[in-house]
Design brief:
GO terms for molecular function: D-arabinono-1,4-lactone oxidase activity; FAD binding. By secondary structure, the protein is of the alpha+beta class. It is built from 13 helices and 20 strands.
């Protein structure tokens, strides 16, 4: 196996790394690499912070191991290698009436990444997290394969889901797809004028897929205004999905200056008629709206951006109002801000979801943004919530035990599986996760 030098970053581009990388195509090649030089896996590097980074050390790029190994149309169980991308699976199986049960906001996420971060989607209130639909995982540790499931080595299974790759390399998995009505989706959009109305609308929604865009620059009586999208799959004719375009260069700083973002958000809010509107789209345009603009992270300029995402319990929903007020007055928000309702479903010891409301906001990497995020993290902890580690690049390690009460159990299993720390990453070292055992 050939090792090459790789300079790379997470999707936020704030932190960089240089690693030696191997790109195996077969289990035999992967096993040889891991037996001689165990190293953590990476996929498409769509986690935002330093979760996928291993600066000065080795990584294994799993994206060439992306084969479909089997599908049972009677049960909907798909056996697939970890490098397969979730968007490709959606496009392949939706015409036949099946969809991955849970999909994150980008179709470029790999199956291994979806498991390692126990991702959630626009249907968490009904379907739970990705890991709840995983029936089996094939792991490799030091060149040796092991199969884990809810009934076979269940503790290791729960540590692997949401475990950031700390229990070994995810080689393949069996995931249960859910029946869908087809490869198009009907989306209803309506304006929401206030934050309290937004929480009420999310609570009352009966739709399979629900997501809210928030104007994170709005203040006063308009604080928390936005657009609620509710959607259902179906069959029918719809224009072909638009061809993806690319952002060729880093955008200038003024593009996301406070006045420009406020103007854009006001126009984006008013693009929806007061009576609302309903449209029919290809499924990928609803589930992965930003994928049609390749390298959209360059819009934040060469210094990159942070995404802060938290979840707080239902009883603490008003805390998010205080966060939005702080964000609006900071003048640091970008147009990308999302509010969703989460159900109780989570599959792993380190899984992010909890029943409540999740808020995600992007911030250009400038000014006092890291100080603002630290304040938001403090508010989150005091509210009994947690920060999403797939998006994190700044969290103080002292917050981790309160946000993730199972971290000690997880760290113990990770150390048992990897006593020499071969699978640690920049993020797990920054957060001192292994020391929690």
């Amino acid at each position: 196996m050939i090792w090459n030098t790789l300079n790379y970053s997470g999707w936020g581009r704030v932190h960089q790394a240089t690693s030696q990388v191997a790109r195996p195509e077969r289990i035999s090649s992967l096993s040889a690499v891991q037996a001689n030089d165990p190293a953590p896996a990476i996929g498409m590097c769509r986690s935002y912070g330093d979760s996928c980074l291993n600066d000065g050390k080795s990584v294994v790029d799993m994206t060439r191991m992306d084969r479909l190994l089997g599908f049972d149309p009677d049960t909907g169980v798909l056996h697939v290698e970890a490098g397969a991308r979730i968007g490709d699976l959606a496009r392949r199986f939706a015409p036949d009436g099946w969809l991955p049960a849970v999909m994150p906001g980008t179709g470029f996420a790999t199956i291994g990444g979806c498991i390692a971060h126990d991702v959630h989607g626009k249907n968490h209130h009904g379907a739970g997290s990705f890991g709840q639909h995983v029936t089996e995982i094939t792991l490799m540790n030091g060149g040796k394969l092991a199969t884990v499931s809810p009934s076979k080595n269940a503790k290791l299974f729960r540590a692997t889901i949401g475990g950031m790759g700390q229990t070994g390399i995810i080689v393949a998995a069996k995931i249960k797809l859910l029946p869908c009505k087809g490869d198009i989706i009907t989306v209803t959009e309506r304006r929401i004028d206030t934050f309290d109305q937004f929480l009420e609308a999310l609570d009352l929604s009966q739709s399979t897929y629900t997501v809210g865009w928030i104007d994170a620059t709005a203040r006063g009586d308009a604080l928390g205004r936005g657009v609620l999208e509710e959607a259902e799959t179906g069959y029918g004719l719809v224009p072909d999905a638009k061809s993806a375009r690319s952002v060729p260069v880093n955008a200038p700083g003024w593009l996301l200056s406070s006045p420009v973002v406020r103007l854009f958000n006001a126009l984006y809010f008013r693009r929806i008629p007061e009576r609302g509107r309903t449209s029919v789209k290809p499924i990928t345009e609803f589930f992965f709206p930003l994928d049609k603009l390749l390298q959209w992270n360059k819009l934040y300029g060469k210094r990159g951006f942070h995404q802060f995402q938290c979840v707080v319990p239902v009883s603490e929903g008003p805390v998010l109002r205080a966060m939005l007020d702080k964000i609006a007055h900071s003048g640091l928000a970008s147009p990308l801000a999302v509010l969703k309702r989460m159900g109780p479903g989570r599959a792993g010891l380190m899984s992010f979801p909890m029943e409540g409301y999740t808020l995600a906001v992007d911030f250009p990497n400038r000014g006092r943004v890291e100080m603002l995020i630290a304040e938001l993290e403090e508010i989150t902890e005091k509210a009994g919530g947690r920060v999403y580690l797939a998006k994190d690049a700044t969290l103080d390690a002292a917050h981790l035990p309160k946000m993730y009460p199972d971290v000690a159990k997880f760290a113990k299993i990770a150390k048992e599986q990897d006593p020499d720390g071969h699978y640690e990453t920049d993020q797990t070292r920054r957060l001192n996760i292994r020391s929690q055992a």
